[in-house]
Amino acid sequence: MNDKIKDPQITSVEIHGHGCDVTELKKALPPEEFSIETASLFSLLSDSTRLRILYLLYDREVCVRNIAAAIDMSPPAVSHHLRSLKQLGVISSRRIGKEVHYTISNTAEGELISDMLKTVFHRRGIYEEDL
To answer: Most buried of the four, 63, 81, 113, 116, by CB within 10 Å?
Structure first.
């Protein structure tokens, strides 16, 4: 085994002889905090209930009770999912009287989600005017 590979602090250009500069690779990595935040965002999206909620919120504003009725779930359970999405900046809310209405936010995270949903809709033959 190559002795250089055993050292976790390797910055050598010649790790296995094809001229890849590991120092440059390390510089290209985003900060660890960014990776942790992004992983948290993607883990939220791995839940089918949250994805269904996001589909409902795509390009519209919906109250908790209507979301709950649409996905056959209790309002408290929906609120739990909404809280998680809101904490990461994916959705935003506004109070209208006694109700709270939610939509995908105008943040970078919200725009990323909107773009992802738009891509999925397009690939499935679902267009914005059909929603």
So the answer is: 113
Structure tokens at 107: 């943040």
The pTM of this model reads 0.69
Give pLDDT tens digits for 72-81: 999 999 999 9
Query: Which tokens belong to 22?
Result: 């590991």
φ/ψ region of 116 (left if φ > 0, alpha if ψ in -120 to 50, else beta) reads alpha
CA distance 100 to 36: 30
Tokens of 60: 């519209």
CB atoms inside a 10 Å sphere around CB 90: 25
Q: In the chain, helix, strand, coil percent, each to 5? A: 55, 10, 35
